[in-house]
C-alpha cells in the first residue's frame, strides 16, 4: 500500500481507540520494550505523545528510562527547517505544547544528534521490512540521518505490520525494531 492510504487508514484506526484502550496498549508496549537488548546505553531520545492524535503514550517508557537512570533526550520541532532540536531532560526542563499541540521542551541543554544511542520513533504504520509511515513532514528522517550510523531505531505502534509500503524513498531510514502490544519485530541485519 502507498503511504497516503496508510496515513489515512491508521489515523482513522487510532481515532477509534478509547483513552482507556490507549493507556492499556501503551503499557503493553512499554513492557514489550523491556525484552529488547537496548538498555546498556546512556542517551535515549523519546517523543512526548500528542494526546489528540491518539499516539502511543510514552509516559510509561519515560518512567522506565528514569528508573534505569538513563539520560532522556526530548525533541523540539523547528518548523522552518523541518528539523528536530534535541534537549536533555532535566529537573528544570519546561514543557509546553507547540502550535500542533506537540509537548516539547522550551530550551535547556542542547544535545547533538550524534550523541544519541537509541531513538523511540512515533509512526502511523510500518511494514515487515522495517519501513515506516509518519505524518509526512520528514522530521525524523532528517534527524536520524544526523545520528550516528549505529543508533538504535525503535518504532512504537498500536497495530501490527503491513506487508509492504510501496512508495519508499531513498531518504527513508528503516527501523531496527518495532514494538506493538503483542509483538516485537526485529529488522536488524546480523
UniProtKB/TrEMBL annotation:
UniProt-listed Enzyme Commission number(s): 6.3.3.2
Species whose genome carries this gene: Autumnicola lenta
Catalytic activity as recorded in UniProt: (6S)-5-formyl-5,6,7,8-tetrahydrofolate + ATP = (6R)-5,10-methenyltetrahydrofolate + ADP + phosphate
Keyword Lipid biosynthesis tagged: no
Keyword tRNA-binding carried by entry: no
Protein name, UniProt field: 5-formyltetrahydrofolate cyclo-ligase
InterPro entries: FTHF_cligase, FTHF_cligase-like_sf, NagB/RpiA_transferase-like
Keywords on record: ATP-binding, Ligase, Magnesium, Metal-binding, Nucleotide-binding
Family classification: Belongs to the 5-formyltetrahydrofolate cyclo-ligase family.
GO molecular function annotation: 5-formyltetrahydrofolate cyclo-ligase activity
Cofactor(s) of this protein: Mg(2+)
A Pfam family it matches: 5-FTHF_cyc-lig
Amino acid at each position: 500500500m502507498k503511504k497516503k492510504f496508510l496515513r489515512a487508514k491508521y489515523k482513522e484506526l487510532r481515532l477509534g481507540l478509547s483513552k482507556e484502550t490507549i493507556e492499556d496498549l501503551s503499557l503493553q508496549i512499554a513492557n514489550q520494550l523491556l525484552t529488547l537488548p537496548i538498555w546498556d546505553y546512556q542517551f535515549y531520545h523519546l517523543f512526548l505523545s500528542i494526546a489528540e492524535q491518539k499516539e502511543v503514550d510514552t509516559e510509561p517508557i519515560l518512567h522506565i528510562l528514569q528508573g534505569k537512570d538513563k539520560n532522556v533526550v526530548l525533541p523540539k520541532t523547528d518548523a522552518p527547517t523541518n528539523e528536530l532540536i534535541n534537549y536533555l531532560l532535566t529537573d528544570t526542563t519546561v514543557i509546553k505544547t507547540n502550535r500542533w499541540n506537540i509537548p516539547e521542551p522550551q530550551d535547556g541543554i542542547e544535545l547533538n544528534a550524534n550523541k544519541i544511542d537509541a531513538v523511540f520513533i512515533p509512526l502511523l504504520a510500518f511494514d515487515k521490512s522495517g519501513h515506516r509511515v509518519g505524518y509526512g513532514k520528514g522530521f525524523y528522517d532528517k534527524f536520524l540521518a544526523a545520528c550516528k550510523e549505529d543508533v538504535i531505531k525503535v518504532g512504537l505502534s498500536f497495530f501490527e505490520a503491513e506487508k509492504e509500503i510501496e512508495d519508499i524513498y531513498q531518504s527513508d531510514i528503516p527501523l531496527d525494531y518495532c514494538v506493538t502490544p503483542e509483538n516485537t519485530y526485529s529488522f536488524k541485519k546480523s
